[in-house]
Write a structure and sequence with these properties.
By secondary structure, the chain is α/β, with parallel strands linked by helices. Helix content is 43%, strand content 13%. It has helices spanning 9-17, 30-38, 50-53, 65-78, 97-109, 125-133, 149-152, 162-178, 190-199, 220-223, 242-258, 273-280, 282-287; strands at residues 22-26, 43-46, 83-87, 115-119, 138-143, 182-186, 204-207, 215-218. The protein has an eight-stranded parallel β-barrel with strand order 1-2-3-4-5-6-7-8, surrounded by seven helices. The structure holds 3-methyl-2-oxobutanoic acid.
Length: 288
């Protein structure tokens, strides 16, 4: 891995132009980041989905900038040769530009991310432009934007009618004009995602947005079915069933401790005779 060259935003745009798809996965800690890097992932997203899959919240709204900095720092320690993007959490980029830049600074300096992601369209373009002007790459995120779940009225597919499709197209073009280096399209109909991908020069990265985006992203815990209970999602493919393996492994450990078959002889450390004598005395040891 040491010789792996991380991607950068110039190469990503080139990959789009050459039709080379981008693979992106979320990660939230050192081992998940390290494993993703070892597996050859192009991009890692420290998503605020950590609120759902790691912290046990029912939405991403409670995730704070401190949570994001803490998790980003462990991910960047784990994947030192991969381009890492950190999510700006709920309501940290809707106030003043100064406040937004403070959050960005923490993710870059303390978290050591290479870029940040923000959810939203026209309403955040001025902030995107200011962050880009400060020298920080920004990944946009439109379609289903989980931080706005209370406005959208649930986790619904976006781009189902002509008006909504046009709104998404306008948002994508505005984000490109504001300087975003790419855009996540979440839960967008395949036709609309394809049209957007053709209409802009920066890469689109889809999740539940069909086959014609310039890249794909999945949540680590979805791809590996690493959750309990696991909620099926149509747009997810399970590549390994880690949740069941973990449960089975722990059950077996509990069984073996109860029946005293773990630890066995192969797991123990033995002391010299002299140690036994000092503990029990020579006579007692003989009697033992
Ligand atoms: O937070 C996240 O994991 C995301 C992905 C679903 C794109 O935003």
């Amino acid at each position: 891995m040491a010789d792996k060259q991380p991607l950068n935003i110039v190469k990503m745009k080139k990959m789009k132009a050459e039709g080379v798809p981008l693979s992106m996965l979320t990660a939230y800690d050192y081992p998940s980041a390290r494993l993703a890097e070892e597996a050859g992932i192009d991009l890692i997203l420290v998503g605020d989905s950590l609120g759902n899959v790691v912290l046990g919240y029912d939405t991403t709204l409670p995730v704070t900038i401190d949570d994001m900095v803490y998790h980003t720092r462990s991910v960047t320690r784990g994947a030192q040769h991969t381009f890492i993007i950190a999510d700006m959490p709920f309501m940290t980029y809707h106030g003043s530009i100064d406040e937004s830049l403070r959050g960005v600074r923490r993710l870059m300096q303390e978290g050591r991310a290479q870029a940040v992601k923000m959810e939203g369209g026209l309403g955040i373009c001025a902030t995107v432009a200011a962050v880009v002007a400060a020298g920080v790459p920004v990944l946009g995120h439109i379609g289903l934007t989980p931080q706005s779940v209370n406005m959208i009225g649930g986790y619904r597919i976006q781009g189902k009618d002509a008006k909504d499709a046009q709104r998404l197209m306008d948002e994508a073009k505005a984000l490109e004009a504001a300087g975003a280096f790419g855009i996540v399209l979440e839960l967008v109909t395949e036709e609309v995602a394809e049209a957007i991908s053709k209409a802009i020069s920066i890469p689109t990265i889809g999740i539940g947005a069909g086959r014609y985006c310039d890249g794909q992203v999945l949540v680590y815990h979805d791809l590996l079915r690493y959750a309990s209970p696991y909620r099926e999602k149509r747009f997810v493919k399970t590549y390994a069933d880690i949740g069941n393996q973990i449960r089975e492994g722990i059950s077996q450990y509990v069984r073996e401790v109860k029946e005293r078959s773990f630890p066995d002889e192969s797991h123990v450390f033995t002391a010299d005779e002299s140690v036994l004598e000092s503990l029990y005395g020579a006579a007692e040891k003989g009697a033992k």
